[in-house]
Amino acid sequence: MAKNTKRFQELLKKVEDKKNYNISEAIDTVKTLASAKFDETVEIALKLNVDPRHADQMVRGSVVLPAGTGKKVRVAVIAKDAKADEAKAAGADLVGAEEIIEDVQKGIINFDVLIATPNLMGVLGKVARVLGPKGLMPNPKTGTVTMDVAQAVNNAKSGQVNFRVDKQGNIHAGLGKVSFSKEQLLENISTFIRAINKHKPAAAKGRYVKNAALSLTMSPSISLDTQEVMDLK
């Protein structure tokens, strides 16, 4: 939403300028900012005091949100034989190997999450340049390179969120829908923040979370109390 629109200006009046909200207050406030004709996503943005150019300061991982994301997730699995059968039984939307890779090479990507068994990671090299920039390349750190494909499919379907700090030290994620109850949002947000804190690199010095904010897809952002964020363990 353009920041100079009348609707955005009206929403801005509901957010106290220069106030750092506690998480509970921020959820109450963000729920009053819903203004779109669709069920907006509740988004968190964190600015971390890390330099991801150094491997020992990379913050990357995944977490399963207790209340899910509210989004239907299409899951593809690169697997063969018994593992392919396991993936199908677990509810994967797409299961195969070479045929999925051929589709990706043609620019056809019919999935939101890609899981692969370790023995087939080699064949994915052909499409790494396509999948990498889209954040779809399977990775052991996010649990998407695994022999336990059934668990990985279940995690993806039940609300797994992957996170990775960008070059500027930012992490951004959708943590549910504005239609969720306050309790569901509180549980999801707390679970996500705990995961970020758990992944704090030993090499990170000083204040780990510089800034944190909550917003909707089309709303102003609400600044969070970074001390409360860092205290969530």
From TrEMBL:
Q: What interactions and quaternary structure are annotated?
A: Part of the 50S ribosomal subunit.
CDD domains from the UniProt entry? Ribosomal_L1
| Family to which the UniProt record says this protein belongs | Belongs to the universal ribosomal protein uL1 family.
Gene Ontology BP annotations:
regulation of translation; translation
Q: Which parts pass through the membrane?
A: none
Please describe what this protein does. Binds directly to 23S rRNA. The L1 stalk is quite mobile in the ribosome, and is involved in E site tRNA release.
Native species:
Campylobacter californiensis
What's any one GO cellular component for it?
Answer: cytosolic large ribosomal subunit
**Gene symbol of the encoding locus:** rplA
Alphabetized GO MF terms? rRNA binding; structural constituent of ribosome; tRNA binding
Sorted alphabetically, the keyword list is: Repressor, Ribonucleoprotein, Ribosomal protein, RNA-binding, rRNA-binding, Translation regulation, tRNA-binding
What name does UniProt use for this protein?
Large ribosomal subunit protein uL1
Q: Name one Pfam family in it.
A: Ribosomal_L1
Query: Which InterPro entries does the annotation name?
Result: Ribosom_uL1_bac-type, Ribosomal_uL1, Ribosomal_uL1-like, Ribosomal_uL1/biogenesis, Ribosomal_uL1_3-a/b-sand, Ribosomal_uL1_CS
Quote the PROSITE patterns the UniProt record gives.
RIBOSOMAL_L1 (PS01199)
